[in-house]
Amino acid sequence: MNEEVELKLELPRDAVEAFERSALIPGEGDRAELNAIYFDTPGSALRALGYSLRIRRSGGKRIQTVKADHGESGGGLFARGEWEMPVKDDQPVIDTRTPLPSALGDAADLIAPAFHVDVERRTWMVEEQGARAEMVLDKGVVRAGDREAPVCEIELELKEGEASALFALARRIEAAAPVRLGIEAKSERGYRLLGAAPASFKAEPVTLKPGSSPQEAFRTIARACLRHYRLNENLLLDHYDPQALHQARVAVRRLRSALTLFKPILPDQNAVRFQDELRWLARELGEARDLDVLIDSIAPGPLHDRIEAARQQAHADILKMLESRRVRGLMIDFAEWLTLNAAPSGGGESAKAFAAERLRHFYRWVVKHGRDMAELDDEHRHAVRKKAKKLRYASEFFASLFSEGKKDRKRHADFIKALEALQDRLGALNDMASMAGLLAKHGVEAGEQAVEPAGKDKKKLIKAAAKAHDKLADARPFWS
């Protein structure tokens, strides 16, 4: 088995010419037409197991490749196990030279073509900071039945030297063309074509390895958050959808929560810089999200039209912001820091012990500061809401460390249920408190038109929030 270390960059079609004209290109390089067939079972068993299987034809040669995701992709480098062999035709060879027979068992007999990838590839060997890397430009299409998706990406694969050279090269490319951090393999795009087109992507479960360190846990969690954001950012760049914007904002909040959660092991000042930049990004996304929510609570009429005009302008501003070098560079910068410099190895503390301590800290804060809910003002209830949200994200991040058996999973589910109930009530109260300010910001004077949020009765909501808080305080922590 070989292991490829690869950095992927997504390139807009209309920027290909600028990239090809840049000083980065060392001559003509090699050109090839690549046609690949990806295989799986009817139930996508290979994908579920974390493998991909393809046969790629170039000229008269066919190469079969099996790749295994090591769980390190999505926010920086792709590090994947890889098994290659020549084959004589488009029929996969499933034998002990790959892990597929033992992984699939009898399901190996069900392997069949799933989708095709056809690209024109240009390849160059480049040197950067004493390292050698293969730089590839792929332009083409992924096809599944009568559906297709474009491919236009640059792949940097390390052949010799340090991984930092790939990011140095990526920065030079970004200066010549508006690239973005790539987070999807071609196979992932193909699988997506087999189902319904998504309006948004929710956060995927995070699986932490037993016995992992807090540093390893941070990298895994942060990569998952970065991937969550980039998937939804790509949807927004294709067309604005309120759900995609909401999930992009959730991803940024989760990433900020991860930085806060792991602050004790993040001495690097870059952590402060990224927290500030992510706060800015969350605020920009939040303004559009507020208008998306507000418009549904306003009856048709002049006020609705005024808010809708502001909403459309906010959408345009969001797309302009996402196209900016500040946002594109932020994601590449964060991936570099995460891969090379974040969370240096510390002592012998396990991720599980670290998680229990941090969960306990956030839980005690919410229980203590959420008492006497009716006596709290809006600002203090909002602070409890924000801390409860961080506790929720932490509970999701660390779930796999405390899910050894059925009872453990039930305790976790019960805790999350109690936490969700508190968040829902506090969220409704926050919407009610912020409504007047949001309307005033867009020129709506008090009394011009009453806009009732979903909660309506503040006293009832406060009573419900207090009851939910009591249930959370009585809940048995899943980490102890």
UniProtKB/TrEMBL annotation:
SMART domains: CHAD, CYTH. Residues 211-478 form the CHAD domain. It comes from the Bacteria. CDD domains: CYTH-like_Pase_CHAD. SUPFAM superfamilies: CYTH-like phosphatases. Residues 2-197 form the CYTH domain. PROSITE patterns: CHAD (PS51708), CYTH (PS51707). Pfam families: CHAD, CYTH. Transmembrane segments: none annotated. GO terms for molecular function: inorganic triphosphate phosphatase activity; metal ion binding. PANTHER family: INORGANIC TRIPHOSPHATASE. This is Ceramide glucosyltransferase. It comes from Sphingobium quisquiliarum P25.
